[in-house]
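Deviation from plan, reported transparently: LMY7XDAE complex.
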Amino acid sequence: MTAQKLDGKACAAAIKDELKARVAELAEHGVTPGLGTVLVGDDPGSQIYVNGKHRDCAQVGIASLRVDLPADTTREQLREEIQKLNADATCTGYIVQLPLPKHLDEHEALGLIDPAKDADGLALASLGKLVLMQPGPLPCTPRGIVELLRRNGVELAGAEVCVVGRGTTVGRPLGLLLTRRSENATVTLCHTGTKELAAHTRNADIVVGAAGVPGLITADMIKQGAALVDVGITRNAEGRQVGDFADDVWEKAGWVTPNPGGVGPMTRAMLLENVVEAAEQQFALAQSGARYARG
Ligand SMILES: Nc1nc2c(c(=O)[nH]1)N[C@@H](CN(C=O)c1ccc(C(=O)N[C@@H](CCC(=O)O)C(=O)O)cc1)CN2
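Because the crystal trials were delayed, the predicted structure below was used instead.
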């Protein structure tokens, strides 16, 4: 048996078409959503991802605003740039590209983002809302994973999901997302301190590899027919992107995300969705304010 492909590229293309229609509708009311990006330093991977985000914006009609800062940017300079975006009315939402250079504090930077403009769902207030199950922007990779599974008919309700990796951008928020009533999955969150990783992955209907360890999860560690979601984006010696699953899993799994072409494109599509959603909400709020003022 060869697994079915959970094609993130195709799914993201369909989502982008849907978003194009929503952006066109906003345009009829004179509203253009705008995404800002803040990139500090010259990490080649981050530059590729930020370039991709601006290309995506152009494809769906979202305006984009790019702030590129040198690697030696100080804490105060970064704070100033973030505050400028908070005040910029043309910017519906923005992101601070991660990782930041080591001398800058990511939590501090994310904490400065106006929660109403948090396009990544990674600001402290947004993560707090996720814990409290209140509406708010959702982190793009976890949201993209749920959307990819849903659109491919992979059942989440009642599923045993093993998430390998406890990072703040993927593992932890994904656990929170999957255990909401609307998803209703049971989640085991594994990490470097987990004693018997294979015992947990073997028990799971869905395994998410978000550890950043190439080939960590092999065919003997999964259940026959399981759905596998590969979040790993490690570069090998030849510069090729490699994931957390070994190639032999394709013969045993039911569904597998290709890598590249799986989770990455979904992350980008969900960023656009967060920006369009924020623009729609800001427009609805302005409309109800105007109605209230008219009496
Ligand atoms: N502020 C953020 N920083 C980071 C995030 C994030 O969601 N917000 N996630 C990652 C990087 N990332 C987005 O920023 C990201 C990584 C990979 C891809 C992607 O589409 N990858 C392609 C391959 C691209 C290539 O040719 O190299 C794929 O997997 O098919 C998109 C976004 C860390 N930082």
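The CA atoms of residues 48 and 295 lie 50 Å apart. We consider this an acceptable substitute for the interim report.
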